Amino acid sequence: MRTELLQNPVFAMAAAQFDQVADFLDLNDELRERCKWPKRLITVTVPVRHDDGTTRVYFGHRVQHHLTRGPVKGGLRYHPKVELGEVAALAMWMNWKCALMELPFGGGKGGINCDPRNLSQTELEKITRRFTMEMAPFIGEDIDVMAPDMGTNEQTMAWMVDTYSTSAGRLVPGIVTGKPLNLQGSAGRSRATGHGVAFLASRALNKLGVKIEGASAIVQGFGNVGSFAALTLASYGVKVIGISDVTGAVWNADGLDVDKLKAHVSAKGSVSGFVGAEAIDPGEMLVQECDVLVPAATDMAITRENAAKLKCKVLAEGANGPTTPEADLIISERGDIFLIPDILCNAGGVTVSYFEWVQNLQRYQWTEREVLTRLETMLEGTFARVLNFAKQNNLPQRTAAQALAIKTVADVKSSRGLFP
């Protein structure tokens, strides 16, 4: 039954990665079973009356992978193709990400199968508030703390705070992170994931002896993660030569003006038609020569079909699960690409979410400089640990990162024992 519930190619990929690492760690059968499968799979119906008077029922999912090390932490996405198995995979990766960064959280993920582009603000608010109420018995600042993800934003989080707090009879800002600043959100939270991706990419270039000023980068995806990764890379002096989104891709070998492109996207809704760039096929863009390639869109972007064609020096995974296991093997065999695995590369978001949660519990606000400095310090330390572990054990960097994370979770489960 458990495999039927989680039957999904993304979960199959996450499970295959876990099995490989569990073999390396030589985990016994009990710890394998306890670490692999999620603690809770929650599905609720979300009935909403639309603006035209019709009523539609959406399905909302929340997977809490483990609460062994603390409350679960992870995003909430709105997308028409949300499935329970995919959500479970993302929750598993979030669990490893929190453990790798030594945050006192387990992994969680949620989603509602709706298309936010086709919904009014009123309809989005109704969906969010109803989902929050349906989830109320299973969430809390010491149980499950959500955050924005694909198709959601700080306004979504504000509605969740209000709904939960109204029911509780008091303001509970720590119920979510990624909130507006005026609701005790954290400075630097919006840019954290993309900033972290760019920061680690620059560290990888340093390791390779590539001068950052004048290096080139391609970014797949221009949402929150991709846009801030591109902006931060550009601020370092990197030429961002290609950027794509769901509508297409733009290219300029001399470097795109990322600030102007962001303004264009705000006005037009897509990168297409940007003056000062030429159109390029999004798939072809991925295999152009560059120093840094940032897949920051959806999972499974780097596959067996295009992995051998990549011409980047650094592959910085801004998205979750952008590289399939088959592609991983090809990249590992090539040996000429410095991979920064997703659970490290995009960990900036959950790390600053942790900072926001701590600030909420303390009722104290940090400055953006404090937040980003703390973030960079933590990423730098974890980056060094992963590289050292990979070198000492002759492992690919993804396997090294996941081994450190899974061992952390397994050790805590072993210490706590099995009840009853």
From TrEMBL:
Matching PROSITE patterns: GLFV_DEHYDROGENASE
Gene Ontology MF: a single term: oxidoreductase activity
SMART domains in the cross-refs: ELFV_dehydrog (SM00839)
Keyword check for Zinc: no
Annotated InterPro entries: Aminoacid_DH-like_N_sf (IPR046346), Glu/Leu/Phe/Val/Trp_DH (IPR006095), Glu/Leu/Phe/Val/Trp_DH_C (IPR006096), Glu/Leu/Phe/Val/Trp_DH_dimer (IPR006097), Glu/Leu/Phe/Val_DH_AS (IPR033524), Glu_DH (IPR014362), NAD(P)-bd_dom_sf (IPR036291), NAD_bind_Glu_DH (IPR033922)
Keywords for the protein's UniProt record, in alphabetical order: Oxidoreductase
Keyword Oxidoreductase recorded: yes
Glutamate/phenylalanine/leucine/valine/L-tryptophan dehydrogenase C-terminal domain span: 186-417
Signal peptide per UniProt: none
Source domain of life: Bacteria
Family membership noted in the UniProt record: Belongs to the Glu/Leu/Phe/Val dehydrogenases family.
Identification of the protein by name: Glutamate dehydrogenase
Organism: Haloferula chungangensis
